[in-house]
Write a structure and sequence with these properties.
Number of strands: 10
Low-confidence stretches: none
Order of helices and strands: EHEEHEHHEEEEEEHH
Largest sheet: 4 strands, parallel
Radius of gyration: 19 Å
Strand order of the largest sheet: 2-1-3-4
Oligomer: single chain
Amino acid sequence: MPQIPHAQSVTTQISVINESTVLTDTDVNPVVAALQQQVTNDFRPVWGTDAELKMIPQGTQPPSGTWWLVILDDSDQAGALGYHDLTPDGLPIGKVFAGSDLKAGTSWTVTASHELLEMLADPNINLSVLVQNQETNGTLYAYEVCDACEDDSFGYQINNILVSDFVYPTWFETFRTQGTQFDRMNQIQNSLQLLPGGYIGVFNISDGSGWQQQTSEKHPANLRNRGPVGSRRERRSLNRNLWLTSLPQRKITTNAQHYLQQMQTIQRRRTAA
């Protein structure tokens, strides 16, 4: 396994904020512990980036200057509460739509792992690798470290918590041969290979079509693979000057209370009907 010298490691402070209505802090706490182990034990030795995760109890203000990993129901709730593309300090933010995962029958813990690792690898969502086909032609591959092997079936367990597999830097290096380790679980056999259910953002520099999602079937993705509003996939396709900073946490807390009251009112009306 490739190793990054310890002296090169950078530790990022990340606040994990639970705003979902489908998970309690008690549900989230053991997942944060598993994510901490994954980052420090598995991700840092390969990518040279470490992080210290801190669970922020509901109703508590996250420390200023921290990156955010926010657990939400869905993208509609993210917009209603005021979580946008950056923290109020203009720092990276990752979003986990746990309610959407539960509805789809997929693992929200894998999504949390996925979003965390990709935020650490490319926090500004602007890195890519050029595979040049001709002098004036080539394809950019988005520097996303979990998309190629994102399916739950390729994840692994840490303390009975399912986390995402992730690729190594070698995955982006087309000179690598078979026998190289391309991902944490050693399931990928070639550079730029997509496992079933995987995808990657590609940008053909000559055809002017912008960022497209390529699936393991080698064709553009369907609506199922389109990133929800505010996701990394959606933000990569936007000019960065169109990104919005999130509201201050105090305002978000107020919006969350109103949102929960609205959801409760809707549920009571459905029950009465």
